[in-house]
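Re: your question from the hallway

Yes, I did run it. Sequences:
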Amino acid sequence: MVLRVTAVRKGFGARQVLRGISFEARAGQLVGIVGENGAGKTTLLRVLSGDLRPDDGRVDLMGTRGYCPQHPVLDEELTVRQHLRLFQVAYRLPGPGRALQLIDVLSAAGYLDAPVKVLSGGTLQKLNLVLALMHDPDVVLLDEPYQGFDWETYLRFWDLAQELKDRGRTVVIVSHLAHDTERLDVLHHLRDGLLEPSPAAGTA
Amino acid sequence: MSAYLVACRYALLAMAKNRLAAVLLIAFIPLWITVAKTLTTPKTFPFRLRATGTWLRAGGDEITMISGSLNAVSLLVGFLMFSAARRTRAFDRRLTAAGYPRTALIGAKLTTLLVSSVLVSTYATAWMLLFWSPLQPFLLGVAVLAVCLVYGAMGMCLALFLRGEVEGLVTIIMTSIIDLAPQNPVASTTADKALVELLPSYGSLQTSLAAGFTRNATLSPLLHSTAWLIAMTATALAAFALRTRTHQSRPRPRRDG
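Structure:
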């Protein structure tokens, strides 16, 4: 197993958001987690990414991880290229090669030297996604990754997800919409702070 | 080293794009100094320089210009650093979670504080020197630099709990007024009370007055500035270190291509 989540609990004050989440994901699996607004999807992903400490339970992850937060977390004064440079340093990559490739796949190459503050929501999300993928992590954690994408980009996103899966990467996608579930290997429903495996999931 | 240089370069570039701060620098500082020097009375006032205990006489216009300059530069650097710290709060967290060395980011923040303080204080001191010949111009520059550093660090601290840019700006303005007004020997008779020694700009105002009207290299008030600077920088950096913690169990290596 590349990712093993065991009895994870997380609460904020009196409100218990995650009440004992357990699931596993293998290499080369596309895992979906869907749930209504406020179901705790983002909290779960933040725990998986190490952004939040669980109150109880544990997360075991083998290899490197890439995390794409729900809202683009960027520096509005810097350009796209400057973001790539900073994350190249963060991930200790020898060059920006894969990042530029991803930018190209997502049709954002025209914005490389534009400051982030002038970009549209969809383009911000593209950069947000590229920053999570550019070091080719073993486990990719994506929180509503295609919000703001036009149809073309949405389709390219799924091609990209498929390509990651084919290369043995584990992709966990959180979404409030349960469409395109046939593209996933496993689909979990998050309800009342617990996960329910869905029989609707594809071939696991 | 490369991580520090990249972070530093981008932090300075981003800061240079702060248009409001640029307008304040170019227009507000010379305006304040000009108004203070030309519209206030040149009549001389006796006052006791608290740092040395000596009695001095100085023109009201010169004292007001010193106080006004310290006020203007503290607002500007405080706002600049507040604005930068607020803007990068979430982003720094993401960068460090991705593996960016925290020491490099801390180094970049301190460099930004130093560079902006040196630039602003040099500019403001040069404007003062256009109107006036203090007895120790270099010491005057050091005093202005000290207040820039103190308020820059304060701006970083305020960004820990103030969310909006306007909130930060108003708080810095109010703090600077409350800080400087009771110390002004012209405007206030409370300037001689012991409590003024606790104010953030005490060291800079005392040193500026000493630089302007004495030939003594009075450095002891700058210890107050140093204490403020260390306390606020340490608070801001400790909060940065706390905020950028991640809770990942150490990832086990898995690389098979």
